[in-house]
Design brief:
The chain is α/β, with parallel strands linked by helices and 416 residues long. Helix content is 31%, strand content 19%.
Length: 416
């Protein structure tokens, strides 16, 4: 252990992170080993470049933003059946897998546990995980297949998630054959001086690397390899908090196959010009999503000759990718975005510091940043009330909360 510690000390000195071992002697043997394991895994060059990126000016203003073409699912007319039949054939042949991003906790909902275990208040008291599973089983039965389900957890909630599935007998899915868990990546949090933070447990303070880490996590954890072994060619990636998500959509799949694109996404039209959502666009000629904070008032309100918003297609985290595209996108990390957060930490003298204002940088990759690596992708507008009922806020917020999701779910499935 001492030899290993000394070797790591020299690496820490090179990057000015020697403080990470300040409290080492006060840890028990298990935590000492964990800390050394953590230090060994850190890409210090990446941490250094991430810190430097916090000093750079936002350059997005120089990008050329243009509207993107889209199809409306309910205005496809004769093409609807055409695309649907192509998609149905592929699904029946076992070419589709579902991927659910479920690395978050239900803290904002007042729930102590993984968000996927949250009960939105239906009479059945089913969790978000079970609601999603019900939909997958129903669709599988329709096409005579069992759709492989890949669930991305985090270090924070992996154990609790797996135990929840075990307790509920995997909701009828076969363990190790049709359901696969894998963990998303993490990055150290750093202070305003570029120093990596130590958490209350004496270990490095890590934070999930955002939904953009999905591609790299799928590849690194061998999930894309598993998909190919199962004969899967397409993977639908969605979030666990949308209880109306349709992971199996033959029309979307048919459009992707027929258009020969490797990415096909769903959108819903913005509720109003200034709704705070990211919208699909072309950025410097490539498909992308522009955040609401980047759109000027003039752009937000601009309409076409039919009175439709030019930037009105909201990104709802419902995306279909070819497995080959996921592997390409996962070969290299996406650019990271910085968020300034409040974070408790242990200082160099071993004292717990509880800040009352933001003090630390957290780095996240966004899934849609990978869109720029393809020349074209398909965007399919769907109906909000049929496919988008997210649970992000507590009921106090009155929007995207358990109450609104529950009402949309009950209305869609005629449970009233």
């Amino acid at each position: 252990m001492d030899t290993r510690k000394e070797e790591l000390k020299s690496i820490l000195k090179k990057y000015g992170q020697e403080h990470l071992l300040n409290n080492y002697e006060n840890l028990d043997e298990m935590h000492q080993k964990k800390l050394l394991d953590q230090i060994e895994k850190i890409n210090f060059e990446l941490v250094k470049s991430l810190y430097l990126s916090t000093k750079e000016e936002n350059k997005t203003g120089k990008d050329k933003i243009e509207p993107i073409e889209y199809m409306d699912k309910f205005k496809l007319n004769d093409k609807y059946k055409y695309y649907e039949n192509i998609g149905k054939k592929a699904i029946k042949e076992g070419k589709l897998a579902a991927v659910t991003m479920a690395g978050g906790q239900g803290t904002r909902l007042g729930h102590n546990g993984p968000k996927g275990t949250y009960d939105i208040g239906l009479d059945s008291h089913k969790s978000l995980f079970e609601l999603l599973c019900d939909n997958l089983k129903e669709e599988g039965k329709k096409y005579g297949v069992t759709i492989p389900w890949f669930i991305m957890t985090s270090k924070e909630n992996n154990k609790a998630t797996v135990e929840f599935f075990e307790k509920h007998k995997y909701f009828g899915y076969q363990k190790d054959k049709n359901i696969f868990f894998f963990m998303q990546g993490e990055l150290p949090m750093i202070d305003t001086e570029g120093k990596i933070l130590i958490g209350e447990d004496g270990l490095i303070k890590l934070a999930a690397d955002g939904h953009g880490g999905i591609y790299e996590s799928l590849v690194k954890n061998g999930m894309t390899k598993k998909m190919k072994q199962l004969g899967v060619e397409w993977a639908f990636i969605g979030g666990v908090d949308n209880c109306l998500v349709k992971m199996v959509d033959p029309v979307l799949m048919g459009i992707a196959i027929d258009s020969k694109v490797t990415v096909a996404c769903k959108s819903v039209v913005k509720a109003n010009p200034h709704e705070k959502v990211g919208v699909f666009c072309k950025r410097n000629g490539k498909p992308n999503v522009v955040e609401y904070s980047e759109i000027t008032e003039e752009m937000a309100e601009a309409t076409d000759e039919n009175g439709e918003l030019l930037y009105g297609e909201s990104h709802i985290l419902c995306n279909l990718f070819s497995v080959d595209a996921i592997e390409r996108m996962g070969a290299n990390p996406l650019p990271y975005h910085v968020a300034f957060k409040k974070a408790k930490y242990i200082d160099k003298d071993g004292n717990l510091i509880v800040p009352d204002s933001p003090n630390a940088y957290k780095f996240e990759a966004f899934l849609f940043d990978a869109f720029g690596s393809v020349d074209e992708m398909a965007v399919l507008r769907v109906k909000r009330e049929e496919e988008f009922a997210p649970v992000k806020n507590s009921d106090d917020a009155g929007v995207d909360c358990p109450k609104t999701a529950r009402n949309l779910y009950k209305k869609f499935y005629k449970l009233d």
